[in-house]
Specification:
Helix 17 packs antiparallel against helix 21. With 564 residues, this protein is of the alpha/beta class. 50% of the residues lie in helices and 13% in strands.
């Protein structure tokens, strides 16, 4: 929470603790150990800005009705020199705290003072966190799941950074193993078909059949000619992969940059095979008695840790499995000094979570320090109907197609509207709408509306400087106080979003902030004859604009100063 809100809460707790001690001293309450109690923000601000269950929590300790305890506490509470204006009891024993006007003034001042840093905190204490997300197979274009995972992972990393963690974004490139062998086979068949005709060789059913494979084979042919058709198959396939894979990775990087995602690290799976990390991981498990040989393969004793079946690490042909490389990769993450590793995976990977954590535990690492955010599917909708194919290509919609259809701002915002565990519909029509029905437009319009107020003020000869001190005490209208309260909750929303690994919480926060601003705007005339009130309301506008801008900047969404 903000420093001012934190101080308000601390004062409330100190007042309750002091009231108990005063009640013990004069005999109003028999001395006893006071149980832990909560201080929370009520859902309804008419019940105060803070409320505590201290009386109900201590009813058993004092063998007294909570309502009576609450009355005694309220009677002994000393609020002098605090943000608490008054204390009231309610219902079965709640104690509610109502703030002074100074509290609201200081929130506004805090937002002005903190500026671009408002909302940031040291909640994470600088712990090193890696967020690995997208990590799409480099053998083909990125799809809708990658689009959602990209926005989710990038915004989660941003939220955790704002919450005081040292965050690193990572993309894991699966450039080894079966999928690369299949990639080479697919390219090889398409190349031979281009050189010698489609009837020369048939593409296997389990190969990659996408048009992108034909495009890469054609590019290889254009550059190198038909001579490779007569070279040894293994040599030709290796050359095709060496040619096509960097192009695919570059395309991924380009599409993700267009999506405003920048990674700190692009980590290649092949590194783990080339530097001996995979062999070392298997040796580590063997040293701990967690492997055995059967049918020429090396197996991991997953059942020893509660799994339903054991897992192959090295196949009978001597090739390591994807799972073996994945264990080595996650061990490497912790060797690099990360305190917490978060993976954003599709929900279809849910069965892999427990076995990955178990493998880390079996390797001597703490599997609980690996967290997996499971992400549900996305349905594209247009005209109220599901959309499967791109208008541009006539094929399955890819990330690049989506970014051709809708603005990047809308894509990033929409994919963070719902919790990761919720299956979502992405409405293509809504994403391009230029009105308040479009959530991102609604938020951006609030920012632009505030900018227009300041332009109008300047055109009238006004020169804005933020109000401070007693000048802010004129902000007493319900809509003003409601807006200030909501601004004060931004920091705690950031920390809550980081703790729950749900950046969608901040998207919803900024939508509600825009709604409260529009409500304030419609109820309170900002630029009026009273200069003190005008400057105070302009200052509140400035604070709202600041927080909206902070959210949009954090999520790499533009904050326009003018809109149509």
């Amino acid at each position: 929470m903000s420093a001012v809100s934190d101080k308000f809460r601390s004062q409330a707790k100190e007042i309750i603790t002091g009231a108990f001690e005063a009640a013990f001293a004069d005999g109003s309450l028999a001395k006893a150990d006071v149980p832990d109690f909560n201080i929370e923000v009520p859902a309804d601000s008419s019940h105060g800005d803070l409320s505590t269950n201290a009386a109900m929590a201590s009813a058993r300790a004092f063998r007294m009705a909570p309502a009576k305890i609450a009355a005694i506490i309220a009677e002994h509470a000393v609020t002098d020199g605090t943000y608490i204006d008054r204390i009231e009891t309610a219902g079965p024993g709640f104690i509610n705290f109502y703030p002074t006007q100074q509290y609201f003034c200081d929130i506004v001042t805090e937002v002005v003072t903190e500026g671009d840093n408002y909302g940031r905190s040291d909640h994470g204490k600088g712990r090193k966190v890696m967020v690995e997300f997208v990590s799409a197979n480099p053998t083909g274009p990125m799809h809708m799941g990658n689009a959602r995972g990209g926005a989710l992972g990038d915004c989660l990393a941003a939220v955790m950074d704002a919450a005081g963690y040292e965050v690193s974004r990572e993309f894991y490139i699966n450039d080894a193993g079966n999928q690369i062998e299949k990639f080479g086979l697919s390219l090889d068949v398409r190349y031979l078909q281009l050189v010698k005709g489609e009837d020369f060789i048939e593409i296997p059913e389990d190969a990659y059949h996408g048009a992108d494979i034909i495009e890469r084979a054609q590019e290889f042919l254009d550059k190198n000619g038909p001579e490779w058709a007569d070279k040894p198959e293994a040599e030709r396939r290796a050359a095709l992969v060496d040619f096509a894979l960097p192009l695919n990775i570059a395309r991924m990087q380009s599409d993700l940059l267009k999506y405003r995602i920048e990674y700190d690290t692009w980590y290649r799976e092949s590194t783990l095979h080339n530097d001996g990390s995979v062999k070392a991981a298997i040796a580590l498990l063997s040293d701990k008695g967690m492997t055995y040989e059967k049918d020429g393969a090396i197996w991991y004793k997953a059942t020893d840790l509660g799994a339903e079946k054991d897992e192959v690490l090295i196949r009978a042909n001597g090739n390591p499995t994807y799972f073996a490389a994945d264990i080595a990769y996650h061990i490497d993450k912790f060797k690099r000094g990360f305190d917490l590793c978060i993976n954003v995976w599709g929900a279809d990977h849910h069965g892999h979570v427990a076995r990955m954590k178990g493998a880390l535990d079996a390797s001597g690492y703490d599997g609980s320090k690996l967290e997996v955010v499971l992400m549900q599917l996305v349905n594209l909708v247009q005209d109220g109907k599901p959309v499967k194919m791109s208008k541009r290509t006539g094929k399955a919609i890819q990330l690049a197609d989506l970014l051709d259809e809708v603005p990047v701002d809308a894509a990033r915002f929409f994919f963070n509207l719902r919790e990761s565990t919720t299956q979502m519909d992405f409405d293509l029509d809504l994403a391009v709408k230029q009105d308040s029905e479009n959530p991102v437009y609604y938020v951006q319009y609030a920012h632009a509306r505030i900018c227009s107020i300041f332009r109008k003020y300047a055109q009238q000869g006004g020169s804005f400087s933020p109000a401070s001190g007693d000048d802010l005490k004129v902000l007493t209208a319900p809509e003003e106080l409601e807006l200030i309260r909501y601004l004060s909750s931004y920091t705690s929303e950031i920390t809550a979003a980081s703790d729950t690994r749900e950046p969608s919480r901040i998207t919803r926060y900024v939508m509600e902030l825009a709604a409260k601003y529009h409500k304030f705007y419609n109820a309170c005339w900002v630029i009026g004859e009273d200069e003190t009130l005008t400057r105070a309301r302009l200052t509140l506008c400035h604070c709202t604009k600041q927080v909206i801008a902070n959210v949009l900047k954090m999520f790499r969404i533009t904050a326009p100063e003018q809109m149509m």
